[in-house]
Amino acid sequence: KLSPRLQAVSDLVPNGSIMADIGSDHAYVPAYLLKRDLIKYAIAGEVAPGPLKNATSEMEEQHLTDKMTTRLGDGLDVINPDDHVNAIVIAGMGGELITQILERGKHKLTDQTALILQPNVDEIRLRRWLVSNQYGIKAENIVFDAGHFYEMMLAKPVVKRVEYSKQELRFGPVLLKQKNPEFIDKWTDRIRKNKVVLNNLNNATNPPLDKIRHIQKINAELKEILN
Ligand code: SAM
């Protein structure tokens, strides 16, 4: 059984894909999808030998060596044109690192490549990169897992650049529209944490007014979103 986070990532992978899981570590996502015949083939890429070993062990234990391979390499370097990869998963890293991996491996992406991305932080940076590179966000998920809210998205190449508002970039265009219970929880929790910070700042000997106003503004915006 997958963790809620990895389950939500797996749910976004298009059926029948030839998938590359970059930074795969234990290869839980490819193993899960292959075991259920939800994808055709998987490449598990890893930059570090230890995690690559984890991926290879999982592949062997699950008897998946005919439908899967593991490769050592940086980012999208492990993908070759004759693999015909049409779905790339990058999960469990910061949005900045995911963005760097995509930017450095841009030439490996085709108009057939779906991207399934789960940044731990810095979602907005990743969404900006997607917009600049002619991707549209087709689906999003948000889950609470082991004390943290995780956002994940499915992005696909689009012919015409999509314009998202600042709010859509920050909160996720699909998540913002759906406002499901996890979304409400995440941002309600953020308002609560900001209030604690505000309280502490207001009680300081020299309250930093700029900072206080800034956080008040953020909370006002969050409350508006949740209404
Ligand atoms: N994707 C799995 C998940 O979501 O549970 C594992 C996430 S783990 C926290 C991040 C993995 O990414 C590590 O195993 C690390 O070695 C790998 N990694 C970091 N930078 C990478 C890069 N440039 N190319 C490939 N793998 C990378």
UniProtKB/TrEMBL annotation:
GO biological process assignments: methylation
UniProt key word Plastid: no
Assigned keywords, A-Z: Methyltransferase, Transferase
InterPro entries in the record: SAM-dependent_MTases_sf, TrmK
Any one GO molecular function term: tRNA (adenine(22)-N1)-methyltransferase activity
Keyword Phosphoprotein: no
Name of the protein in its database record: Putative tRNA-m1A22 methylase
Biological source species: Fructilactobacillus fructivorans
